[in-house]
Amino acid sequence: MVAMAGPSGFVGVAGTPWSLVSQMNATAFSYCLAPPESGKKSRLFLGAGGKTAATTTTPFVKTLPDDPLRS
């Protein structure tokens, strides 16, 4: 695990080829974003670690390359 102090950028989790999820070939991911003022760490899990029993899941939506909402 890599820990960073303060904001360090952004991560793409869409189904596009350049997103982190696609580049890692992950079939699942989950995250928990802690409020900045809480002092707690936010978490991102990819692959099998992203599947948990106590959550609701939403599958990726397949889009066409010319879809205006695809970014």
TrEMBL record:
SUPFAM superfamilies registered for this protein in UniProt: Acid proteases
Full protein name: Xylanase inhibitor N-terminal domain-containing protein
Xylanase inhibitor N-terminal domain sequence ranges: 5-47
InterPro entries: Peptidase_aspartic_dom_sf (IPR021109), TAXi_N (IPR032861)
Entry superkingdom: Eukaryota
Family label: Belongs to the peptidase A1 family.
